[in-house]
């Protein structure tokens, strides 16, 4: 996820037109040359006159973004936390089913307090195989009508991934509305009950 734009980029004197992406704590470009820089490794970020200038050590990339330059700068300098991306707000009721990274439980508690009672505002469901997809239906039965389910799975597995999760959800009365990086190993998909079924 994040922002994407076709634009001109100048990298250390080389110039190319291609696709730039800014999101998930990195900025990257694909054109006649390619690069991907993590925000944490950037030494400076500035924007003016439609140009976003990012530096990583002694390298400099200038993105010709027009009216988007300052927005991209803001995103890089003010990154959303993982919990912000998931839309979890203080006081929301939630549950997390399955194994997640060690920091996640603390992030949930810091934002929303202890796990809540049904009906829930949000359920995070870890899925590792097609046999576990039914857990999404169990979660559907436990959320409030306007609640959300975040299905989470390991990246890069052909035998089980995003398409399996999305197809099962659509076949069982859920719609996908957002994809988000969960961490370096896991991806996630936000699922909701369609408005006409609430």
Average pLDDT metric: 93
Helical percentage: 10-25%
Q: What is CATH's topology name of the largest domain?
A: Rossmann fold
Largest sheet: 7 strands, antiparallel
Low-confidence stretches: none
CATH top-level class of the largest domain: Alpha Beta
CATH architecture of the largest domain: 3-Layer(aba) Sandwich
Q: Beta-strand percentage?
A: 35-45%
> Helix count, per DSSP?
5
Class of secondary structure makeup: alpha+beta
Silhouette: elongated
* Number of E strands: 12
* Relevant CATH superfamily of the largest domain: Vaccinia Virus protein VP39
Task: Give the termini distance in whole angstroms.
Answer: 27 Å
Number of domains: 2
Lateral arrangement of strands in the main beta sheet: 4-3-2-1-7-6-5
Radius of gyration over all CA atoms, rounded: 19 Å
List the helices and strands in order: EEEEEEEHHEHEHEHEE
